[in-house]
Amino acid sequence: MKQRSKYRKLEEFGPSQPGQIPLSSLKSGERGVVVGLSGGRGLTSRLISLGFTPGTEVTLLQNYGRGPLLVTVRDTRVALGRGEALKVMVEAL
Amino acid sequence: MSKTEPSLTIALAGQPNVGKSTVFNMLTGLNQHVGNWPGKTVEQKTGLYMRDGQVIRIVDLPGTYSLTANSEEERIARDFLLRERPDIVIVIVNAAALERNLYLVAELMSMPVWVVVGVNMMDVAEQAGIHVETNVLQAALGVPVVPLVASRNQGVSELMDAALRLVKNPAEFTPNRPEIRAEHRPVLAEISSLLNGKIPLYPGDWTAIKLLEGDVEITEMVRGSAPEAWDRIHTLLKQHEDAFLDVAGGRYEWVGRMVRAAVVKPKTGAISLTDRLDKIATHPFWGLVLLLGIFGLVFWLTYTVAMPAVNWLNSQVIISIVESVRQVLAPAPAWLTSLLVDGLIGGAGTVLTFVPILVVFFAVLGLLEDIGYLARSAYVMDRFMHWMGLHGRSFLPMFIGFGCNVPGVLGARIVEEKRARLLTILLTPLVPCSARMAVIAFLTPAFFGQNAALVTWGLVAGNLVLLLLIGIAINRGVFRGARSAFIMEMPLYHLPNARTIGLYVWHNTWAFVKKAGGIIMLASATVWLLAYLPNGDVQGSLLAGFGRWLEPAGRWLGLGDWRLIVALLSSFVAKENTIASLGVLYGNEANLGLAEKVARTLTPAAALAFLVVQMTFIPCVATVAVIKQETASWKWTAFSVGLLLFVSFGVAVLVYQLSRVMGWGG
Asked: What is this model's ipTM?
């Protein structure tokens, strides 16, 4: 039972559609377009109010492979935890 | 201050990092009142603004990105707008991030309020190559729009002109309100008519939009206040669950239309000042080096600027007050003089001598905050905070804690999530505050001679490792490893404003004096009483008796002398009291050679144990009081005190016994 719920979670994080990757997979300097938000309602709502809506272009400023990320969205620099960046699905540009 | 009743109320709204408090400070100066929103642990600032004999009340709403019930701040801001109905809402936006800032304006424009927009940081935007045509924006929005550089006091009085003109000529207000996307309009209209008049103060349209957005608070409210309509509304909401993203998307489309003509942006590729500074400030390695450098600077300033001021206050001001009180009270009974001089003035002196240290600390912190650096320190510390199930934001209250734990605990408010906030509050007392550092700096040279610096660094480093270990343990054991989301805006760097920093220093220092002052005086008087009763002699007092009773426990860590135990206990009043108590107990009022005198009675192992226990001992009484206030729980307050009591004793015993094994037992 426990095993299965863990499995589902991993699936949720992975690419759900071809071409869609989590924001945290972009490298420093790469750009992408937000295509979806997969977190809970609270997290989604906070991401939206900072400008992460479907169709918005984002630039990854800093991604060292671990630790938080630095992203530019709608002229604003936003620091995102890696866990949070996993929930923002983008298409790389 | 004028006694006239304010004739108008103006609310200041805005997202974080737009310079809203600078505008507020420009308008109200020292004419402001800082308190809490009723029943909330969110700071409320109100102030008075005078113009042509007219008194206007300015209410500074909490900085919020939106008005959905994501946080306590957002609920407070929108409840105020709907229930108190201010005459005008001035919303401050940042010219350099206009798009995202107008999202809040879009939300405000759907509310029954009169909006005036102040576009701040025009200079910062120009620097980044962004040009905002405020008159074009005004035409698009249909509400007054005023350009500002609040840090240089440009445009602030024009902003008030625009607000006051609007009160006189309501016809000027022709807002171009955002509309919901066409496919959701019928459902919005239906919900709105179902709600019609059922919820006092909350307009139907606005409530309906919030329901479509899935706003938890509004949903609960409608379910409770309009049960007969709820079934139908619930069904409609179920059918339109997708409306959530559309409502927000619709607002950004509206924003897009508003800024299209009004904003000229640079071609991408230009490297801004912020980009260049962040290459270092947010770098995983160099960012830490920079942060350590800043800590070094703070400590250096504390020792070179603040400590001489403290010593001057002690040796000049307080002594002369004591002398005059003694003269005036010469005919009075000895116990009364002693109570006043040793108990009350001693307590007041403790508070007073602390002021220079806090001023220096808050000046540096205010500067770092104002130029935009503080958010970067949270960013580089995020990785380490994660080990404790916290994130970068929790670093900021701990940073403040190095100055004083009292504002540190209060600063934990910026951590949104409840569990993370509680853990931050519990850990902040483990940050070595400047009072503790002062005691260490006083005693260590006498205890360890030329190794003093090494021992001091070892104590601080050990203290921080201990904080980390306890954080990991509480997170795993009590909170079961849960963690919260880290989302934080990194503002553009900009030049600091002296007035903003000055008021920051003033408010924080004054808040400490007000909050801690009374408690420290009271505690100081109590300790005096315990040291005086029953016969006016410290050696035979209740306090000494208590200290002697604890001697067997003290021996575990090499402190078999009741005087050391009593000195340690007195640090509960205020950490630096340890020195004053040692002075009294070792019969050495002037403190000259005091540390050496104490050092002679201790083996190196015991001296080290004493420093360790002093550093990690239970929080001072003022800190305990704010822990109670912020957690609103005696249980967690007791937990915090009990935890540190256990930890300080345990670690000191360990250090003592290990040191003896190492052969430092003398």
From this structure: 0.84
